[in-house]
Amino acid sequence: MVESNPPLLHNFRELFRHSSESCVARRSEVVMEECNLPLIDLSGLRSEDRGEREACASAISRASSEWGFFQVVNHGIRIELMRKMRREQVKLFKAPFERKATCGLLNNSYRWGTPTATCPKQFSWSEAFHIPLTKISEEVCYGEFSTLREVMEEYAAAMQGLARLLAGVLVMTLGHQKGVFEESCNERTCFLRLNRYPPCPLSPEVSGLVPHTDSDFLTILHQDEVGGLQLMNDSKWVTVKPNQDALIVNIGDLLQAWSNDVYKSVEHKVMTNTKVERYSIAYFLCPSYESMVGSCREPSIYRKFTFGEYRRQIQQDVKITGHKVGLPRFLRRTREQHQI
């Protein structure tokens, strides 16, 4: 068998060889339920009718509370821009592995597999470029992929505008000014992540991206028609039916903490496909590392923390345990816990 680009199969086999049997993910015989996420037409936010604007905002808030995920159409991002971005993304990932991994492309942001994995169930069968928005304008980052720069700049700006709009709606529905996150979340702190999930010759139960929650305020996902995204709903995994006309939005840990658990940061994952590769692009609305995250109301479920502190705790947990713990680390102790 010819080795894949990147060499995921070699690494996965090494993990499998050194793992105890109990740590190896077994194929499930359970048929996965397919779901249609709440679909929200954002043209309602631009309506001259106040009732339509309020109904649209209410739908966004309700989906964020009940699902932690929703889809948006009529979002204002040009279809042709998204198609151009996808074409450039495919061209980038088709480059030889050695070139992606060693030539400094996109601020040396290339990553693949899971370097911290100690067993197969912690391994992500994928590759990605995780790029700070501050770097996408730097010509030196692109090498021979010069046509990617202009498209990515326009795409990032469009996603930034949509993310601000949605964050503003979610903040205002809880009775706060929409500019709450504007100072802490800007092009200096946010990211684009270009993802590719190669075909996996092993079990389709291998994770393209292992179960996790997002560590930001919110994420906007542009995915292709292949599918593979699953999320936790009512204590079970459900498969998200792809909709090429829609963008997917999900709540991150920081917005759950800020909203005092009104909005939900939901665990999700990506499953592999044995025959077809999958592409997606995620935009992450993040604050600066110094930004303090506190609750919008009292009594607060979580203690105050900075984004930098949160990221450091995640990295420490992953290093020690192999997985992210996240918000439970930042719960306020009850009086009874203090007395123990």
TrEMBL record:
<keyword id="KW-0223">Dioxygenase</keyword>
<dbReference type="Pfam" id="PF03171">
    <property type="entry name" value="2OG-FeII_Oxy"/>
</dbReference>
<dbReference type="InterPro" id="IPR050231">
    <property type="entry name" value="Iron_ascorbate_oxido_reductase"/>
</dbReference>
<dbReference type="InterPro" id="IPR044861">
    <property type="entry name" value="IPNS-like_FE2OG_OXY"/>
</dbReference>
<dbReference type="GO" id="GO:0046872">
    <property type="term" value="F:metal ion binding"/>
</dbReference>
<feature type="domain" description="Fe2OG dioxygenase">
    <location>
        <begin position="188"/>
        <end position="287"/>
    </location>
</feature>
<comment type="similarity">
    <text>Belongs to the iron/ascorbate-dependent oxidoreductase family. GA2OX subfamily.</text>
</comment>
<dbReference type="InterPro" id="IPR027443">
    <property type="entry name" value="IPNS-like_sf"/>
</dbReference>
<dbReference type="InterPro" id="IPR005123">
    <property type="entry name" value="Oxoglu/Fe-dep_dioxygenase_dom"/>
</dbReference>
<dbReference type="InterPro" id="IPR026992">
    <property type="entry name" value="DIOX_N"/>
</dbReference>
<keyword id="KW-0560">Oxidoreductase</keyword>
<keyword id="KW-0408">Iron</keyword>
<keyword id="KW-0479">Metal-binding</keyword>
<protein>
    <recommendedName>
        <fullName>gibberellin 2beta-dioxygenase</fullName>
        <ecNumber>1.14.11.13</ecNumber>
    </recommendedName>
</protein>
<dbReference type="GO" id="GO:0045543">
    <property type="term" value="F:gibberellin 2-beta-dioxygenase activity"/>
</dbReference>
<dbReference type="Pfam" id="PF14226">
    <property type="entry name" value="DIOX_N"/>
</dbReference>
<dbReference type="GO" id="GO:0009685">
    <property type="term" value="P:gibberellin metabolic process"/>
</dbReference>
